[in-house]
Design a protein that fits this description.
- The chain is about 70% helix and about 0% strand.
- By secondary structure, it is mainly alpha-helical.
- The relative contact order is 0.17.
Length: about 80
């Protein structure tokens, strides 16, 4: 899933863990569908946060959830 998108091997586990945490929360809240497919928008947010220096998986997941929900609300208003 993540390796094919060109992520560095040293960050795959961190991104994978943060994605699993964030996706689980967003699925349970109904923000994303309950499927096995990767949500590309959520993955992009996590990768960008990682590139900006966030390396704690819990903070990474929480910030990604906040960004995802904020973007979703902005799209709903527009």
């Amino acid at each position: 899933m993540l390796v094919e998108r060109g992520l560095q091997a040293m960050n795959v586990e961190l991104v994978s863990d943060a994605y699993a945490i964030a996706a689980n929360y967003l699925r349970r809240s109904g923000a994303i569908p309950d499927t096995l497919a990767t949500n590309d928008r959520l993955l992009e947010i996590i990768v960008k946060l990682l590139q900006h220096g966030e390396v704690n998986k819990i903070r990474l997941a929480n910030k990604a959830i906040t960004h995802f929900e904020t973007q979703s609300e902005a799209r709903a208003v527009a």
